[in-house]
Description:
The protein is an alpha+beta fold. The chain is built from 17 helices and 20 strands.
Amino acid sequence: MAGIRAPKQWSLTKQETITSFEAWRQNLQYTLSLDPNFARFLVDDVTWLKKTNAQPLRGFQNDGEDVAEANRRTAAQKCTHLELMLGQIANYCPVISRNTIVKNSTSIKSIWQSIRSHYGFQSTGGHFLDFNNIHLEPNERPEDLYQRLTSFVEDNLLRAEGSIQHHGELPDADEELTPTLENIIVLTWLRLIHRDLPNLVKQRYGTELRSQTLASLKPEISQALDSLLDEIHSAADTKVLRASLKDKYFERPTKGSSGKPSRQTKQCILCKQAGRPSQHFLSTCKYLPDEDKKYMSRVRQSHCEIIDSESDNDVDHIDPKMNDCNDEYVAPSKLRTVSALRRVSTKQSPYFKAFYNHIPLQLTLDTCAEVSMINASSAESIGVAVKKSSHITLQADGVTPLEIIGECHFTLERGGIELQLEALVVSDLDVDILAGIPFMSTNDIAIFPSKQKIVIKDKITVHYNDPKTDQYPCKNRVRRTQAYLVRAPHVSSVVWPGCYGEFEVPSEVGADSVLAIEPHSASPGQTWPEPHITESVAGKIRVLNNTSEPQFIQRNEHVCRVQLACTSDDEIKEKIDVRDIDKSKFLTKTPSDHLIDHVTIDPDNIISPELKAQFKTLLYKHSEVFSPNLSGYNGAIGPFKASVNMGPVQPPQRKGRMPQYSRDKLVELQDKFDELE
């Protein structure tokens, strides 16, 4: 026994499972059984009394003559050994009151049952109902889920010495895990992983299931689980931007019809009623007045314009009654829509901005998108982690697929509210982020298109397409070159390298605007923040500390200056030049023969005069290489070719922006550009 060493015992924590508790119990029971003084109390049928003043020895008696003298113990010795063992159990079970184990326990079973009751998985009939609460946890392996299900069922099997009755009777022997129970465990395991997985397993392993149980095929199913899930995800194609066009003016063919328009038989209603030959159209009837014939002609012409206009838009079906421009009735409401057929109004999709760390992002909301998407270039620029995805997405036509690179999960923030985004990363998206129904449902976002506003969790209201909050205010406002000061919060703070500081911008600037940031002029040695272009979100900007030193910001300190920024196309075009261009700074093409005079050939007089003359002739022949105005490559060794592959989606227009400087600053800026050329 001296050579046997027990595993190191550990203590119970506040959160335990059935599996972890059983591992702790069996290891502790094995450790205690190595001591012969404790082993006698670990037998299931051994009991004792609670320790009280009336029962200080807990009901133990002295051993009689029938016990070997070496193993003979008095009642006091037995009580001492028991309390030492109970103390060891209490030391490794700090979540239970010590007196519950040391003084109030009556058997080793009662101790285990008390611990089970504390964690809520004691052996009772009601505990089996917790089987319904088991589900696949995030980042949990399917095999771990199967082991949890198996452990739960095994722990709830009926035992002969237990107190749970079945139909009013206690079981005669311990219940075993039958094949039917194993099949139920595997079936539950498949259903918890994916609700469509049992049907796919039945289809894929139909031949094997004819002669084997489901539990017998569990190892093979586990090996092929990834491919089965990929097949399920591929079958459930995600329909992105699903929109169906329905014609408002023409009826579709009824069920059972061929779908092809049929020509109506010539028949005049007036002649048919009068009993005359009626095999002609009403418009050609000689009994019809001239005024009615002119009116019918105008109606027929308008009718044909409707059909010609709609035929360009791939109308699924045209009613037979409206075919061939014949003389049947045409509703006046349809005639009045001729002038407006090609005037379909368009509105910009709702959007708002949010922060990811210090980076402002624009989210375009789409209520027809069943999944959210992010542009691959945007995902790479913000540094979000992209994971592999098996999703398949289609465009609005339901046929053209999108190129899926992966999927990402990250958190955005606007106005102190966190927004959870789960998006597919696609390479051909014309916006930064397309937020679909899952994003809007998860974050409780409502859209009111008539009022052009977005409500986030009933706390924040964002107005889009609002001139007051336009991100390009120089389009709609009087040109102003005013700079605004940005102050620090009322509490001092430190911005560490790699972190960012959040500051409020003045209300005159706008909640969501494009701003140019410059250091505050009152601090001549200030290197942070560097001049750059950023965007405000909900009236706040975030400035990254890209230096190697922490930046201490005092309360109410002037951090920087901001100016509204706009694109070069938004600048006011003046009829006169900003300044007179100094044309002398530009190079002019001049003869380069005189440059050869400054070239020295053989200063050491090593080569012969004939060879020196040949070098000089060659220099004069190719004198243009010494000119500052080189004409370019002459194609001596063949052409250089380059090809650029353009995708079907045009890239978004990302124009350069500049601060709204005054005229003097623009002249100074241009002079600085010329100096650095």
